[in-house]
Each structure stands twice: as C-alpha cells, then as structure tokens.
Design brief:
The chain is α+β, with helices and mostly antiparallel strands and 376 residues long. Helices cover 24% and strands 27% of the residues. The strands form 3 sheets. The protein has an 8-stranded antiparallel β-sheet with strand order 2-1-4-5-6-7-8-9, with helices on one face. The longest helix is centred in the first third of the chain and has 13 residues, at 34-46. It is globular and about 70 Å long.
C-alpha cells in the first residue's frame, strides 16, 4: 500500500507531501489542485512503461507544467519536476528537468530529461534503504551482499530505469515494483456520449478489467456475475434502481446489456440509457472487478450522476477499498458523506490554494510525512 505521495513544481503543486491510507478522498474547491494531484498519480504510473516524457508532452511540455510562481527562476538552482511515492515495502521518486544546452538535437532541445531516479525499501528514502539509484545515464543497484554494482548499460535521458532495467535476476525489486505500478487503474474517461462504444453490442469474452473508456461494459458485468462474489452485482443495481435487473444477451458473439425496470413492458438497451445510468453501471463494473489492482483511482466519479446514486456509489467504493487501495478525487459532498458513513476509515486530503500554491488544509510544517528526494 502507498503511504505517501510527494510532488514539487507541478502546476500549482509547489511542494506537497500527503499521507495516504486505504481509502483516500481528495477534495477541495474548484482550482484548488485536485486535478493536478490526480495527474501526478497518472504521471507516476507512466514511468513503468517508459511514457513519462510523452505524457508530459501531451500536458503541454515541461515548461507549461512547471510551477510558475515565486522561486521558479532562482539563480544557480535548476528548476525540476519531482514526483514520487513511498509505500509499506517500496518507494520510488524521479526528478525531471530541461536538457543541458547543446546536449541534444535542436528539435528536441525542450524535451524533458530524467535527471535522477531512486527505488528504496520502505516508506522513506535513506542511504540504508536505497536499492537502486540513477544519476543521469548511470545506474547502480545494490547486490545481494549489500554492496553496489554499476549496471553495464547507460540509460537514455527519456528512458526510466523501471522500464529498462527490471530483471528477475539482476534487479528483482525493480521488476516487482514495475509490475505493481502497471496494475494501477485510472477511471476518468468513461464514455457515455451518444457514440460511446458501450452503447452498441461489442464482441464478448471474459473481461476481468473494465476498459478505461467502458467499451467492454457488458462483458465486464457478465464476468463479475460469473466470477465475482455472488449477489454483489444484483445488489449494486437494486440499490441504485430499486426493483431493476440487468441482463446480458449474446447475439452472435456480441454482448449487449439490457436493463429491466419495474413498470416497463420491455427492457432498455444501452443506447436508451441516460448518461448517469450508464456511467453508474460502468463504475459498478470497475469497482466489482474480480481482479483488484494495487491502486484504483477515480477522478470525479459523480459526473452526470443523479444525487440519489451517490449513496450507493459511496457504498460500492467503500466495499472496494476493503480489497484494494482507493483514491477518489471529488467535490461532491453527498458522496463524501456516504463514504464517511460507510464504516470504512477515510483519509481526507482537502486541498486549498494559498498565494497560488496548493497546500493541504491544516497541514503544518511538522505534520507532513517524512520525505527525502534523490540527488541529481
């Protein structure tokens, strides 16, 4: 389980170190930095697949994502984007910056470079807990005898050691950490528009994990019914739509979702469902997955949902947090109240903005978790 999330110089997140629990609720007013904190988690996940540099490019490049307030241009101190996490057994951090002048071809002169990375045992980086570190292109890994071995392979500035050097024999800790990060799941682009793939029949097969856009909804729900805990799916549907039932039909190998509701003489197909109803069913499939991830992150799951659906959604999220670590980014107070009344312990991260910088409400200088960054 992740215990700490840390970031420096990402948009309004000048310096932020927050504690994490089993069920985490990130909240705050509009513009407080909730979406930025969500993006930090997504960006951390890309290191496991060598996608950090391209992810920053999609964000507008390093220049546009770096903190723009006081201290950005301190003389003699290179500005860098730092992000990392600490966990019960492993931690990881990276430092990204702008290339040195004339070190790359002109067309790539503004591409960010990975300046430093570190993997350590336990929640806090210390010399005694360090397992692997990277400075520029050079990587060293602690061997079984406690000494250090230089890796006979230099890294390109756009490659992460998590993706390039994870090896079951020479770097088993990197391999374990990489695979755990790759299991993280993020849901913030569940499509419910008129052309959404979930509104049309799709080829059906056993689907342990709902697609990021919800395209394989019917197959995912049928998999939950077939492999998951008996009755959970039916209960989740009935709590939201009393007396209703879902049916998955197979039409020549394509699965179609039908919703039976009291008082209607025929079931409704997904093309007829409201955005909120379809989105709720997608969240049911994501939260009742038969194969829980290491970390499940939901960004504003309340979007397009009727207020009456927030209580059953909160119950679903709380139940999911008993099987996996969950982070929910939301500004919906009814959903927060439902989570607080679920009986599950909640770790609330309320963000506020002071002089343009995001901070955690009521977190003093001595309240933040211990944290140390790797050196360049």
């Amino acid at each position: 389980m992740l215990t700490t999330l840390a970031v420096e110089n990402y948009r309004s997140l000048r310096r932020l170190v927050v504690p994490l629990g089993q069920l985490n609720v990130v909240t705050g007013s509009n513009g407080s930095g909730k979406s930025s904190l969500y993006r930090v988690l997504r960006l951390l996940a890309t290191f496991a697949s060598n996608g950090a540099v391209s992810a920053l490019a999609r964000d507008g490049g390093l220049d546009s994502t770096l903190w723009a307030g006081p201290g950005r241009t301190d003389r003699g101190t290179p500005m860098g984007l730092r992000l990392g996490f600490g966990g019960d057994d492993f931690g990881f951090a990276a430092d990204l910056g702008i290339p040195e002048p004339a070190s790359v071809a002109a067309l790539f002169a503004r591409d960010p470079e990975i300046k430093a990375e570190a993997v350590w045992a336990g929640p806090v980086l210390r010399p005694s807990t360090l397992l692997a570190e990277r400075g520029g292109p050079v990587v060293r890994i602690r061997d079984s005898g406690g000494g250090w071995a230089l890796v006979n392979h230099t890294l390109d500035p756009f490659d992460s050691m998590l993706a390039e050097l994870a090896d079951p024999q020479n770097a088993p800790e990197l391999l374990v950490l990489r695979e755990r990060i790759r299991s993280w799941r993020f849901y913030d682009h569940l499509r419910t528009d008129v052309d959404a793939p979930a509104r049309t029949p799709q080829i059906g097969t056993r689907t342990m994990v709902l697609a990021h856009d919800g395209a394989d909804l019917a197959a995912a729900l049928e998999t939950v019914r077939f492999i998951g805990v008996a009755g959970d799916l039916e209960h989740a549907v009935d709590r939201a739509f009393p007396g209703s039932e879902i049916e998955i039909v197979n039409r020549d190998g394509r699965f179609e979702l039908l919703l039976h509701q009291p008082g209607l003489h025929r079931p409704l197909g997904t093309a007829e469902l409201s955005d909120g109803t379809l989105r709720y069913l997608m969240l049911v499939a994501a939260l009742l997955t038969p194969r829980p991830p290491e970390l499940l992150v939901l960004n504003e799951p309340e979007n397009s949902l009727h207020p009456d659906l927030l209580k059953p959604l909160g119950e679903l999220i709380a139940a999911a947090a008993r099987r996996t670590q969950v982070v929910v980014v939301t500004h919906a107070q009814p959903l927060i109240s439902a989570l607080e009344n679920s009986g599950q312990e909640i770790n609330t991260i309320e963000l506020v903005k002071e002089l343009g910088a995001t901070t955690m409400r009521d977190q003093g200088l001595l309240d933040a978790p211990a944290w140390h960054w790797p050196k360049r």
